[in-house]
Amino acid sequence: MKVKQKNISPAQVAGIIILMSAAVSFFINPLLTIAFALFYVILCVAASFFPETNFLGPVINRGKTGKNLVALTFDDGPAQPVTRQILDLLDRYAVPATFFVTGLNAVRMPEIIKEIITRGHAIGNHSFHHDPFLMLRSSKVIYQEISNAQEVLQNIGVYTLAFRPPVGIVNPKLAPLLEKLDMYCITFSCRAVDAGNRRVKDLSRKILKKVKADDIILLHDVEPHREEDSQILLKEIENLLSGLKAKGLKVVPLSTLIGKEIMIEGEN
Description:
This protein is an alpha/beta fold. The protein contains 10 helices and 11 strands. The protein folds into 2 domains: 10-49; 59-265, Alpha-Beta Barrel (TIM Barrel), CATH 3.20.20.370.
């Protein structure tokens, strides 16, 4: 029987080194021990907001193809009618995308989950409730949020391998929990800071100004908070799709960009 090797994060290695240093420093100056402890806490807190450092565990935030390729991802849905409207746009431009969905929305709209897949796109896990403070919760709560969303998707016929944490924040508990679930963490490298479609104006310009090869682009497929912004959102996404092409950047499936499968179909 093959024993699965447990991965050790840089945070754990740093923790051991700092703990040893703190123990030694106690005999020199007890205040140094406190300083070492505070330094480690600050280091871990900062790393939570910068998951691309991989300090708290492995996180994929961009591709490594070295080619003029990018991937589109949509978070927080599915939602009516915006997800289907986005799917129509993607069809028109023959562009693939990955939708990181919440378990709650998947329960409400399983037919859209199936339609996303039928139209040639992928599904990722974005937790069950999309609690923005999820990474401040206990390991038990985090595990339940991810596994409950997994169960909903499996009942629809999808086994997703990729998890994107709400608001892209990680913590030291996440990596071992995902390892237990045979999943991996993926975030993004390019976004318009649209606050979940609260600020959709100039979305395309903001992304096109900074997007580069191997970027994972973050978008949202939820209704804008103002009704008048719904059509603006669709126009902005269309401008982005045409703009990426004009810049010579080809949109490919996320799995192609990162070299890992996002999901497996037909696992119930």
